Predict the structure.
Amino acid sequence: MEQTKVNTPKLFVCTVIENKDEIEERYERAYIFFQSLVADCSEKEAHDALNNAVCKNHEDVSLGMLMSILTEPHNATKCYRDLTLITRDGLTCVLNNLSNLILERYLKFQDTTRNQLLWLIKEMMRNAVTGVDNVCWNLMRYASGGDITPKNIYLVESLLDMYIENRMWLEKYPVLICMVVYTYLRLIEDHNIPHLMSLRQKEVNFVIALIREHFTDVLTLGRDLVRLLQNVARIPEFNQLWQDILINPRSLCPNFTNVLQLLHTRTSRRYLQSRITPDMERKLVFLTSQVRFGHHKKYQEWFQRQYLATPESQSLRSDMIRFIVGVIHPTNELLCSDIIPRWAVIGWLLTTCTSNVAASNAKLALFYDWLFYEPDKDNIMNIEPAILVMHHSMRSHPAVTATLLDFLCRIIPNFYPPYSDKVRQGIFNSLQQIIEKRVLPNLQPLFDSPKLDRELRTTVRETFKEFCNNTNGEGVSGIRDEGNEDLPKVGSDEPAFSDDEEETQPILTEDTDDDDIPLSEVRARERPELAAALPLILRPFAETLLDERSTTATTSFLNACGSPMPTPTALADLFAAILQDAPPLKISPNPQPVELEAALDSPIFAMFAYLNGEGTEAKRKLVLEIFKEIHAQGSFHSIGFCLLFYLKVFYERERRTERDAGRRRNVKFKVDIYKNYCSHLELKLADNLANDFEKCQENDANLLVWLIPDIYREFKDQAQNHIKLLNVIVSTLDAVQLQRLVCLTLQGNLMMFKSDDITTMLSTSLGWETFEQYCLWQLLTAHDISVEDVLPIIPKLSYKAHAEAVTSVLLMLKQERPTADVLRQLFCRTVDDDDTFVVSTVMYWCQDYEDKVGDLLSVLLSTRYPGTSPNKRKRPGKHNIPPNAPPSAELVLGHLEQIRVCCVDQDDMSIFNMECMQKALQQSQSNSSDSLRRQYSELFSLAWEDELPISRRARKLISNSLPLNQNLHSSNEDSEEEEIVKPKQAKRRKKAISDSE
């Protein structure tokens, strides 16, 4: 055994000062265990030993064989074959551990390990192992931008060759196709040097082919696809692609109208994350979540030496800025702490950039979400860092602010001249949102600062005149600039630090470089004296409250408020500062009473007590006035969902205290308190519920899920089918939380939908992301929403753009029996050779209800030719026709042609040989135009000129193992005639059949 340990191969490169970690020891133990099973055994004995061991210890055997594959190339082929034979989970265990290895330890892999990893992935691709696409995704993250070292280039080229060789496998995974396009578009930018030109051309050819052949999938990448395409636009192949995107967009995809469609789609965070290696991601997350402001320079210097030291790494700054802006969204607790904020990290990346091209790209990356910002779709956290970089740099690095403002002004006409108005509107939307959300209370000090160059100030005033109230040439200080020509200009050329400012402008001597002091002190400079705005009698209570931030201090302060009464503005400023600094409200997935009561130990819940009957009516109104003013200021957004949390905790507390079951059931959730709160703040109840849930989603998903049953029970009229509220919920859920809501629904404790106006909600949901739609349809299924409720959207569903809804409706129809109404809506869908929705449904129904389907199809086809119908006077009146128009004859024939092709493939034409279908085909053929006859000649050729022979029908029945009825032909004809002549009776008969069955 000792000898085995010595000969254990190494997965990782280890230095002499590094100890083995748990991962390495675990793999070594598994490898030794595997070797102990197969050592000195014949192939059959080894296989038997592995099969016996894998039943008891599947994971260790799998990991031991995985390590053998990764470290012993000479044994890899045999070991992989044995692994596939003995696996009990389809290699799921191996794939999960392989993904973890890559994410955690790839940079420490031996060269042999890296080569074997690529070999193993290629083998899994060839064998179509489920889940290997996730391994590819994780490995591609190490194909880093801004890195042309041999190891990185080897990985980039190896992955590219692997995808080219296994192109058919790749095309089965649309999300991975997007990842490949996004990754290599970014890498092509770095490979513009002579010895990499052959690699670059191979990348260009592959990416162009993927984009053109899978443009519908690539569209989901959104606006950052445009940003990456701009960087490679001079390459001839991409130049031609740009021409098609701008001039002939439908040649790429029928659903693609113009480039604006891409620019209005926010790129998923997972793609922004993918261009940062896991190692870089961990460092940036640590920097923005653990390092205190003022102690961060040593970390930044280390990071720069590690990742940003080479000339090629200049381009990496754009990837990092997009990651920080789009992925790192700190909690309220972090925002209120002394942790280094995002704007400071971005400011450091901008000031250390030495390449003009990289600097321009970094600025574009920072402002990119501004250009087409839509408040109802985009996230305020994506535009917040840019405005704060400019705001905070004005004091100590005015040149940074100046260059960013200049860039913002110039980007409006220059980004894409035909869309200059739309870019201007996007930037104005961003600035308006910044003011409304109180990121900055006022933009004039930034846009009209005396530290800016005169020409730039003029440009900014002209560009953003709506946000510059002073038009008399006065800056923020009220001093006119005309008399200051002789003063030295600070920050016009190079970044000027605080020491320089102290020498040249004594009026600014109190300024210091904000990078060198704690963040709390920076904020303390800008925060007003909250207690000073209150009456003298209240100041001691206010100072205690500011120090303690406790429920006791809050109650004491509010009880002390009397005559003279402080202004609502002063009170709102005080409580907003306290509430902003409070830790965010969070709970566990299944909170216990002790945890819930502990969560109420916060000033805001002491304020809610006055709304719940404690104190006088005057105090209740005072608290409402404070909340109203805080809402008007936009300084704190969590009041609403905190109030809902408080009401539920209070409700649960009262239920626990009641011993009698009957009285416990009579305990009421105090919805009137929340309704009065909304009424006093002049908010619409339903919309405010959705807004509060949106803020709750940003704060804590567990809290949101915990509130859902009570909200849908107590606010049933407002919550059910509310589109925004539903979107907030499904965009929050994970699989476990979704299961919880489904279980509550099945128990009868949750009702989220109503049949009224559900079509509008379903139509809106078609634009949601895949998992959001998945959650929605799971919840709809749990609520037993009927097929009739979803019928109106069936004709609108695109099999490409709305794949999630199409799949869900298809599975829903699978559980139903065919009816005339459903078939009518199915046949209203546009005919497309690639769309198998209608034919799949009809062919599935034919397995059990072929006669019924044949009757319905024949009626549907016959009624498309009313001009010569022998039963014209017996057709139903207008009052029986549904509001949506029936399908045209062309649509019916088109879908029947698809069904015919499918029947030919299955060698079963029995449905077309039915008497009713024969009559309908003959009737439609005789009444169709010549062009339709030619177009559907093969379909019409199925119509027999004479009566259908009895033997054809008999053969169908015999094939289904049914007893042959000699009178079937005549009885079928009678029933079909009745179906055509009297559709009303046919419908009643259908219902009777359903009831009896």
The chain has a mean pLDDT of 81.
